Amino acid sequence: MIGLQLVRTRVFCQISRSPRNPKNVMARRFVRTPTIDWKPITSKTTNLRTAEQQAKTPIIRRFFLGLMIAMPVISFVLGCWQVKRLNWKANLIAKSENALVQPPIDHLPPVLDPEVIPEFEYRKFKVKGHFDYDQEMFLGPRIKDGTPGYLVVCPFVRSDGGKPLLIERGWIHKDKVIPTTRSDSKNYLRHLAMPQGEIEIEALFRVMPKKSNLQFDHEEGTRLFYVPDVESMAEQSGSLPIYCQMIYDLTDKPWIGPNESRPSKWKFWQKDETTNYRPEEYQEFEFVKQGVPIAATPKVKFSNNHMQYLVTWFSLSFFSAGLLIWNMRKKSGGAEKAIEAKRKNMKANW
């Protein structure tokens, strides 16, 4: 009776008679008890490792919670920083493109300050002088249309004085590195491959990135450079640390040797071949075969991927913030839902 009052069990009895012995009466008793909180308490054997893992669980949860809180903030700050970088890069590209379309500077001062050259990047200029082939250097190897070769960098001695400038003349085939292969008398383009005497060239200023510690160092005394290390190239050749690039041009140019001069206007019987000179344009394969450096096409080579970075960081901030809100709501509502479900179950069974 006491047990019935404590657990409020429902007792059902069923009486049946045995067919063999009708006098014997069989009584069956059915007891239904609720299953709520009726599970026995079991204990598991634990060891030191399990205890340590259980002790570390709150720390790991706190770490991930802190990471989820910090991720939206950090990614949003990085997105704002990319907005500033995007504006800076857009202004830099616009400034460089504007400098590229400006007319070339006709005269350079004898004294040039390398510190102000970044303000004149991609600005064209004309200068007279001659190349110092004894200090010729090669940058590479470089691949052009699947063909290995090198970039020729040669000091240009200015006629109006001042220290020489580092001029990147262009790309040549690897078999034309030796100067004699370009100055051979059988080469009908030798006056373009290795022009002699005073000439006038047109080039543009460039600011090359500094060599990092992960790149190969230049071996002193050699003419081969793996990266455009302007400081080392200028120190080796005795030039200014100012890097310039010649402009892509496939036309022929009149050339007067150091021991030659233009015919006098008074001697009308001497034909001046340069009076009605029409420049002939060659093909690139002729320049490659004869060892004429192929200069770079003048264009702005700045990469601008800041818009992609901007979208990536802001998207990450948005999704991480949404995930954090969803997780916090799930944790706060999970306990209340469990209690409410337990109450409904108890009411249904009692």
Automatic annotation (TrEMBL):
GO cellular component terms, semicolon-separated: mitochondrial inner membrane
Main location: membrane
Domain of life: Eukaryota
Chain ranges passing through the membrane: 63-84, 307-326
Pfam families hit by this protein: SURF1
GO MF, one annotated term: unfolded protein binding
UniProt-annotated location(s): Membrane; Mitochondrion inner membrane
GO biological process: mitochondrial respiratory chain complex IV assembly
Keywords tagged on the record: Membrane, Mitochondrion, Mitochondrion inner membrane, Transmembrane, Transmembrane helix
Bilayer topology term: Multi-pass membrane protein
Family: Belongs to the SURF1 family.
UniProt-listed PANTHER family: SURFEIT LOCUS PROTEIN (PTHR23427), SURFEIT LOCUS PROTEIN 1 (PTHR23427:SF2)
Its biological purpose: Probably involved in the biogenesis of the COX complex.
Protein name listed in UniProt: SURF1-like protein
Organism per entry: Meyerozyma guilliermondii (strain ATCC 6260 / CBS 566 / DSM 6381 / JCM 1539 / NBRC 10279 / NRRL Y-324) (Yeast)
